[in-house]
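Action item from last week, closing it out:
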Amino acid sequence: MATRLYGCIVEFGLDPSTRSRIYKHNRKVIYGLPQVDQWPPLTKNMFAITHNIKESSLSYDYMGRLIHFGANFKSIEHEWEEWKTKFENLLTQLYWLEADVHFKTEYAGIQPFSWSLDLLKWTAVDNKELNPIQKYHWTHEGEIDWAK
């Protein structure tokens, strides 16, 4: 059975100087993902990052860019916990504000999952350095036991 996995990560859009560092850092992390990965995969081919065009006044990154991802897999929901661990490890390498993942299965419909950065727990900058985001800095919603 086919399982569609898709979603987005909303980057943290701070002041222009910090935003530039965040954009560069996150691009390096996404482009550094492997092209091939063990099952369940989390690869750079799944990801794309929105960007502005210099010749246009249209902004695609109001309050932060979107890092979007998606793929069609065969029954990946059975390895949800392993994929979720890989995804959360990726989140600890990025600077982001929120993330959403949707699984669309043939038998269970769309299952949403979300992560939100708790700005009361995380401070962006100490001594002009960006602080990493750790798991205890976010909240997570959405769980399902795919084995049922």
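Closing note: The beta strands are 2-11, 47-49, 66-74, 96-105, 109-117, 125-126, 129-130, 138-141.
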